[in-house]
Design a protein that fits this description.
This protein is an alpha+beta fold. The protein is about 35% helix and about 10% strand. It contains three helices and two strands, in the order αββαα. Strands 1-2 form a two-stranded antiparallel ribbon.
């Protein structure tokens, strides 16, 4: 069992091995659920978006519509510049 220290601000820092166990890193979120018996369950937060939300962020009203071949050509051209 890992023992954590509470700061004067009422905060705790989860140790690296606990964060690794949760599968989270800097900038990611965790959730804590209070149980009636005084325990807390901590788990990695799961995103609440849908694939449609993600795809929607890629589209731009009035923007060009590209075919897969056009997108592949642009990607190949940009990759060749990076080398």
């Amino acid at each position: 069992m890992t023992t954590l220290t509470i700061t004067t601000k009422g905060q705790i820092t989860l140790k690296r091995d606990l964060l690794k166990h949760l599968g989270v890193g800097p900038g990611e979120k965790i959730e804590a659920d209070k149980l009636p018996d005084g325990r807390i369950v901590v788990k990695a937060a799961t995103p609440h978006g849908t694939i449609s939300d993600f795809i929607g962020c890629l589209s731009k009203k009035g923007g060009p519509t590209l075919t897969i071949d056009e997108m592949n050509a642009i990607a190949a051209r940009e990759w060749s510049k990076a080398k």
